[in-house]
Amino acid sequence: MHVLVIGGNRFMGVSLVWRLLFAGHRVTVCNRGNLADPFGDRVERVRADRSTDAFDAALAGRAFDRVIDMAGFTGGDVARALRVLGDRVGHYLFVSTGQVYLVREGCPRPAREDDYAGPVMAAAPSPADHEDWAYGVGKRAAEDALAAAAVPSTRVRIPMVNGERDPKRRLESYLWRMLDGGPLLVPGADAIARHVYRGAVVDALARMVDAPPPGPVYNLAQAEQPTVRELLERLGAQVGVRPRIVDVSAAEIAAAGLAVREVSPLSTTWMSHVDPARAVAELGFAHPPLDAYLGSIVAELLTGWRAEPPAGYARRDVERALAA
Questions:
Q1: Sign of the C-alpha dihedral, residues 164, 167, 173, 174?
Q2: Is residue 145 one of the residues assigned to a domain?
Q3: In the structure, what pLDDT confidence band is assigned to residue 8 with cuts at 50, 70 and 90?
Q4: In the chain, how many domains are there?
Q5: Residue 310: inside a domain
């Protein structure tokens, strides 16, 4: 099959393109071309900003058996793709986010696919929440544009993604702090951290390419529901450390001039909690155990340890003082 991947040049996208190539698919990758990729001449590259007429010109008249959209962030993004590609798409797979639930007023946790319906927050709860709120609202608009189209499609909603070569270096940032023997400042340490492994998402998408799913939308997440504290303890166990976790408030961290996302990347009120039961029942979705995928991530990090510390680590002395 001929598969168009929109995005596909970092993290999950790179793994997915390789998976498609190994399956024998013909792959066209469309992105702005700002990042190098490892595919050589194995893929066709279309360099275009999807929000501009260059996207239209690059793909006008093209036909694809499958489209996997990993970089749609607004309704306009998806509407343009649908307008350009028209009915020349066999099936459109859209990678969305669990944050589409978080911007819904009163959404339950965990959220199921049908919990999408309901009134949406008219504005962010606070200025500090604006970026996350806008992300969720934008993804909802993208989903709605796809759902209203005549093209066969499936939307996949995923929570926070962990995996090897995470460009945000989330788990790695905790390992740097465990390595120096100091405390981990963790706001909301007892919040549920039901994440998803990169490899599980890639596997599910690859299967959907081969056999389009029966339903229009699925949550993908791990079965296990540890707290942030438990997840970090299990991460520490991978390197033989029992981390000292200090549960401080986000307000205390901010008052010290630190950024919560840098000090504790898993401590966010915008970390979605989704229920994958439908994907398990209808797709046979299977997720590796938490300890197994943590082991894979840690092994990759330790064999390719980066000399440059993650963002925020330069102010580690302030963290230590706050924990004292």
A1: negative
A2: yes
A3: confident
A4: 1
A5: no
| Position 284, amino acid | G
Decide if 57 is inside a domain: yes
Residue 98's Cβ-side half-sphere holds a number of Cα atoms within 13 Å equal to 25
Burial class (CB in 10 A: 0-12, 13-18, 19+), 26: middle
Asked whether residue 110 is assigned to any structural domain, the reply reads: yes
Residue 138 is part of a domain; what is its CATH number? 3.40.50.720
Calpha distance 75→112 (Å, rounded):
22
| Best CA proximity match to 201, nearest among 219, 228, 177, 175 | 219
pLDDT tens-digit readout, 240-260: 999 999 999 999 999 999 999
Q: Which two structure tokens, joined as six digits, stand for 111?
A: 């959220």
At residue 64, the pLDDT reads 98
Residue with tokens 């940032």: 173
In angstroms, rounded to a whole number, what is the distance separating the alpha carbons of residues 257 and 319?
A: 10
| β-sheet bridge partners, residue 249 | none
Furthest C-alpha separation in the chain: 63
- Tell me the C-alpha distance between 267 and 285, whole Å: 27
Decide if pLDDT at 9 tops 90: no
Helix or strand or coil: residue 75?
Answer: helix
Domain ranges, residue 128: 1-158
